[in-house]
């Protein structure tokens, strides 16, 4: 019975997405390849792992039990490879890093530069993903470390808080008179740019600011990349949440209008699998992150 790690990674991705096509897209393989991997795992184990319907793939009881073991094995395999590379006295290997589309906020450039200056044999594969995608990737083994806006809620992960980032409501400068002293209800009625992924930190802040008060935003455009959304805002397409420092700079330059409503805030974290806390590559990245973010602190979830 031979099951390779790539087949296990596909199994974990399908189990988390509950959908073959979405899982295949997530791990960058074809749907037919993903289907073949699942068949191979089931054939080798002589066990049905999924109950297939027209719309989803649900784990069987056996699949659920094996799912947790598969995630653990993927983490152990990555850690094994790191320790093996460390034996020659030089830390080398590949780290897959996921980060948001806002590199200025995460200081990812400074972190990577410090890491490369300290450990020149470590290479990086950098990927832009929203927080929800980063969490899934960390747990399935597709990603080694992530920089994300999040809440420390996942028991499988270690979170290191880097900073608390404030977000304000900003809009086109042409709407300045309608924005600056508007109430929440008046702001909600203006055209909005909002994320299509409700699990994004950005969406969670909008829920806290508006939906929790019974207000529904007048969304005219959905987006999945905040940098593109900011460009649309500057072109006059609609309102959005924006990092306070960027919004205030845009207002000083006469490009944006900023509402006087109290800012929302979210924490920026570095995260990795808890089971990989002793992995030499992970330790090296954590140390470089702390060099750039000296106030970084390890945060445990409330239920840990």
Outline the fold blueprint.
Elements: H1 5-17, H2 20-26, H3 31-45, E1 50-52, E2 57-59, H4 61-86, E3 93-99, H5 103-106, H6 108-118, E4 122-128, H7 131-140, E5 145-150, E6 157-172, H8 176-179, H9 184-189, E7 191-195, H10 201-209, E8 218-223, H11 226-234, E9 240-243, H12 244-252, E10 256-258, E11 264-273, H13 280-292, E12 297-299
Parallel strand pairs: 3-4, 3-5, 7-8
Antiparallel strand pairs: 1-2, 5-11, 6-9, 6-10, 6-11, 6-12
Helix pairs in contact: 1-2, 1-3, 1-4, 2-3, 6-13
Which terms would index this structure?
304 residues, alpha/beta, Arc Repressor Mutant, subunit A, D-Maltodextrin-Binding Protein, domain 2, eight-stranded mixed beta sheet, two-stranded antiparallel sheet, 45% helix
Characterise the protein shown here.
This protein has 304 residues and is of the alpha/beta class. It has 3 domains: 5-69, Arc Repressor Mutant, subunit A (Orthogonal Bundle); 75-162 and 268-299, D-Maltodextrin-Binding Protein, domain 2; 164-266, D-Maltodextrin-Binding Protein, domain 2. Helix content is 45%, strand content 24%. It is built from 13 helices and 12 strands. Strands 3, 4, 5, 6, 9, 10, 11 and 12 form an 8-stranded mixed β-sheet that branches. The chain has a two-stranded antiparallel ribbon with strand order 1-2. The model has no long low-confidence stretch (mean pLDDT 87).
